[in-house]
Amino acid sequence: MDKSLGLIFLLICVGLVGHMTHAAFMEKLANSKICADKDCSYVISMAQALEDYVASDCRYINLRRGQMIYVFSKLKPAEGAGVFWSGSVYGERYVDQMGVIGYFPSNYVNETHVFQKKTVEIPTTGMDFFCA
């Protein structure tokens, strides 16, 4: 019995180490972000994709024209940088993508409904740009 538990423990550790080797901290896209609350856990607005967008790495999400997106934060970029928002897709047609949060260019969407007009600005952290 002890050998079996040891083997299971070893397999779990190897799996975790293997999984961790694929994770990486990516370049920060901005030093601060605008959110509905201090934890960025509430939706600011709803937006609709104006055209398709293909994610360039794991920080981003793919968008399909017409797709609805819940917007959780809006990055406040340095002067001259692109403007990205973070969100999650919505809709029965996109069940496989629902719940996945990532960044997308704000010029690819039209904000259709604002849920939270009062927002807070908070600093971004390395975990905001972590790829797993």
TrEMBL record:
Gene3D superfamilies: SH3 Domains. Residues 1-23 form the signal peptide. It comes from Cyprinus carpio. Coiled coil: none annotated. It holds the Pfam family SH3_2. InterPro entries: OTOR, SH3-like_dom_sf, SH3_domain. It comes from the Eukaryota. The keyword RNA-binding does not apply. Keywords: SH3 domain, Signal. GO terms for biological process: cartilage condensation. This is Otoraplin. Residues 42-114 form the SH3 domain.
